[in-house]
């Protein structure tokens, strides 16, 4: 779960909307009673508070007895943090990292999801230490997602590798730990993931669930396998249109997956993750030609 802003920019709000001291406290006390969120008021708070002031005023609500209030405090922190430029978000990140240890699994899982939207540079020494400590508890809720967050941020490689070698790990937990280690350059973990994926048939399930995991690793062999499938002319995937029973090329969906992670990719995706084109066959030809000419493409590693 991520707390991205909608298309409406915060910069559209005028000075008359700026929050005054106590606005966030008043709002969360009302929210605690009603459970009803007020989007416009939240946007006013986010635009009107500095990150430091917001976190300070939210401090009591991070520890509220109601999980929904703690969740809302984390949500506001995430949104305000993402309003800041990369490298100036550490206060938001360190506060969200504390929520990973929340007694409510929903709050903890939400915090992990929110942290995926930040950049590795936003995780300071305090965040590294806290996440590294949490990684020692493999039975905690959302451990797999926590491992992948750690892999993205470059945290706790030694701890994760010890967990990876433990016998009896649940399959899904071991898979996520392997992905995280692969993201951090652990060769045997990447090999494990590649072998698992390559044993699977190429179809819609692989493209929708397996390939995104490989792409998460941002490792060249993993991306190269996706490129190999993109260059294939075989029709092995289901159409997203249920009225079309014929199999279609998997390449269209793979283009959507690769566009955000290969630098200079000739076709981009919109905010929904859909290719920004009206002519998919033409876009595919363009992408294939570009990949043939640019085998040394660069992989973006600063996003989750």
Structure description:
It is globular and about 60 Å long. Helix content is 57%, strand content 2%. Strands 1-2 form a two-stranded antiparallel sheet. Helix 4 (67-83) packs parallel to helix 6 and helix 10 (171-183) crosses helix 11. It has helices spanning 23-34, 39-48, 51-62, 67-83, 90-98, 105-115, 125-134, 143-153, 157-164, 171-183, 187-198, 204-217, 220-230, 251-258, 280-293; strands at 235-237, 248-249. The chain is an all-alpha fold and 304 residues long. The protein contains 15 helices and 2 strands.
Features:
single chain, 304 residues, mainly alpha, two-stranded antiparallel ribbon, 57% helix
Overall shape: it is globular
The number of E-state strands comes to 2
Low confidence ranges: 5-17
Strand portion: under 5%
Quickly count the helices: 15
List the secondary-structure elements in sequence, H or E: HHHHHHHHHHHHHEEHH
Distance separating the two termini: 12 Å
User: From the alpha-carbon coordinates, what is the Rg to the nearest angstrom?
Assistant: 21 Å
* Mean pLDDT over the full residue set: 92
Characterize the largest beta sheet: strand count, sense, and whether it forms a barrel. Answer: 2 strands, antiparallel
Percent helix, as a range, is: 55-70%
The quaternary structure here is single chain
- Give the class from helix and strand content and strand pairing: mainly alpha
């Amino acid at each position: 779960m991520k707390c991205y802003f909608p298309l409406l920019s915060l910069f559209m709000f005028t000075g008359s909307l700026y929050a005054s001291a106590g606005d966030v406290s008043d709002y969360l006390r009302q929210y605690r009673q009603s459970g009803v969120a007020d989007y416009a008021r939240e946007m006013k708070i986010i635009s009107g508070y500095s990150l430091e002031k917001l976190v300070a005023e939210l401090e009591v609500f991070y520890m509220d007895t109601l999980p929904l209030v703690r969740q809302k405090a984390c949500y506001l922190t995430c949104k305000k943090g993402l309003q800041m430029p990369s490298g100036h978000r550490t206060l938001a990140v360190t506060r969200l990292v504390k929520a990973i240890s929340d007694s409510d699994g929903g709050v903890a899982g939400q915090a992990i999801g929110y942290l995926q939207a930040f950049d590795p540079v936003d995780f300071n020494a305090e965040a590294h230490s806290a996440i590294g400590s949490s990684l020692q508890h493999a039975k905690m809720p959302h451990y797999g997602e926590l491992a992948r967050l750690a892999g993205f941020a470059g945290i706790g490689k030694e701890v994760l590798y010890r967990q990876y070698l433990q016998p009896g790990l649940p399959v899904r937990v071991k898979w996520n730990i392997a992905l995280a280690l692969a993201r951090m350059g652990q060769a045997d973990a990447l090999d494990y993931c590649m072998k698992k994926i390559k044993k699977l048939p190429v179809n819609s399930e692989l493209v929708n669930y397996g390939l995104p995991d490989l792409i998460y690793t941002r490792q060249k062999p993993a991306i190269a396998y996706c490129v190999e499938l993109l260059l294939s002319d075989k029709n092995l995937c289901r159409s997203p249109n249920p009225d079309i029973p014929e199999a279609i090329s998997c390449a269209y969906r793979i283009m959507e997956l690769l566009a955000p992670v290969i630098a200079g990719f000739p076709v981009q995706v919109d905010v929904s993750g859909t290719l920004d084109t009206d002519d998919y066959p033409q876009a595919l030809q363009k992408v294939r030609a570009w990949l043939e000419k640019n085998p040394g493409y660069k992989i973006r590693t600063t996003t989750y």
